[in-house]
Amino acid sequence: MQGGERYNSVSDYLKSEFGRKTVKLSIDAGFTCPNRDGTAGYGGCAFCSGGGSGELASHVSSADTDYSASISDQIGRLSEKWPDACYLAYFQSFTNTYAPVDVLRSRYYAALDDPRISGIAIATRPDCVGDDVLYLLEEINRDHFMWVELGLQSIHPDTLTAMNTCYTYEDYEKTAEALISRGIRVVTHLILGLPGETQEMMLESVRKVCSLPVFGLKLHLMNIVKTSPLYRTMPDYVPFASIEEYVDLVVRCLEIIPPDVTIHRLTGDVPRRILVSPEWSYRKRTILNMINSELKDRDTRQGAAL
After folding, report:
1. On the CB side of 266, how many CA atoms lie within 13 Å of its CA?
2. Contact 277/238 with Cβ under 8 angstroms?
3. Contact 274, 225 (CB under 8 A)
4. What is the SS3 assignment for 139-193?
5. Domains in the chain, ordered, with CATH?
6. What's CA 105's distance to the chain center, in Å?
7. Are 224 and 281 in contact (CB under 8 A)?
C-alpha cells in the first residue's frame, strides 16, 4: 500500500506518478446519452440524476471547445488548498464517447492542449466504445496519461434491466478487455445498494470485476436524488439502514479487491440540495473516516481476504 494506508488510493497513486498532488477538473463537454435520445432507450438509467451524474462539472456549450475559462475557474478555486497541484481533465457528465470520432478528438485535445493539464479521464458507458473510438483512445494513450471509466454498476442482469441501463455485463466485459489489451487503464464503477440486491450480490460484482486486470474501482453509495427516475418510482427507498452497515460492507469489499487496484471512490458525492436518501450520505468525510477507523480496528486492508 502507498503512503501507509490500508487501501491503494488513487490520490497516492497520482502523487507517485506526477510527484505532487493531482486533482481532476470536471468538464461537461455537452455530450448526451444513447439511453436518453432513443438510440438505446429513453429516460436514462433509473439511478442517474438529471445532470447525467455531472452536477459538479463545469458546463460549457456543446459546440465550445475552449475550456480555458472553465479550467481557470476551477484551478482558481482549488489553488488556495493545493497551490502546486497537477490537473487532469475529467470528462464526466453523461456519455463522453457518444459522438462522431472527429468531435471526440476535437474536444479531448482541446483540454489536453492546455499546458496546465497533465492528463485526461473519460467516463462513458460500456456500449459506446466502438473500434473508431478505441483507435482514438489508443492514440491519446500513447502520448498522454489517461484512464477510461466504464459505468457498469452491477454484474447482475435483473438489476441492470430494472435500472434501465440498456447495456449488459457482456457489453462491459468486451469493452474492458478491448481497452486493457491496448494498454489503456480502465476504472470500473459499481453502485452499492441498488434496489433488489443483497450484500452478497454486491460482493459478487466486486469479485467479478476484479477478475479482469482493471486499473481502478469506484464504489458508489446508492444515493436517491430528486432528479432521478428512481426517486419517482421508489421515493421511499433507503439502500442502507445506517452508516455503520454501509461502512461494514465497504470494508468487506476492500478485503476482496487485489492490492494493486487503485481505489477512486468509496462513497457517494451529490449536492445536498437534491439528495433524498440516505440522509447521512452527504457526510462524505465522516464516512471515509469511519471506513479508515474500521479497517484499523479490524487490522485489515485491501486484498486481505484473497
Report:
1. 29
2. yes
3. yes
4. HHHHHCEEEEEEEEECCCHHHHHHCCCCCCHHHHHHHHHHHHHCCCEEEEEEEEC
5. 2-220+258-267 (3.20.20.70)
6. 21
7. no
The span from the CA of 178 to the CA of 186, in Å, is 10
Indicate the DSSP class of residue 61. -
Cell 445532470 -> residue: 51
- Element containing residue 219 per DSSP (H, E): strand 216-221
Q: How far apart are CA 43 and CA 35, in angstroms?
A: 7
Rounded CA gap, 288 and 241, in Å? 17
For residue 230, give the amino acid letter.
L
For residues 278 and 301, give the distance between their C-alpha atoms in angstroms, rounded to a whole number: 26
Q: Identify the three-state secondary structure at position 126.
A: coil
Q: Taking Cα atoms as reference points, which of 142, 149, 82, 85 lies closest to residue 112?
A: 142
pLDDT tens over the chain, length 306 residues: 654 589 999 999 999 999 999 999 998 888 999 999 999 999 889 998 765 454 444 444 444 677 888 889 999 999 889 999 999 999 998 999 999 999 999 999 999 999 999 999 999 999 999 999 999 999 999 999 999 999 999 999 999 999 999 999 999 999 999 999 999 999 999 999 999 999 999 999 999 999 999 999 999 999 999 989 999 999 999 999 999 999 999 999 999 999 999 999 999 878 888 899 999 999 999 999 999 999 999 999 999 999
Q: Which amino acid is at 199?
A: Q
Of 60, 73, 62, which Cα lies nearest the Cα of 25?
A: 73
Instruction: Cis check for the bond before 157: say yes or no (omega within 30 of 0).
Output: no
Q: Are 31 and 93 in contact (CB under 8 A)?
A: yes
Cα 28 from Cα 120, distance rounded (Å): 13
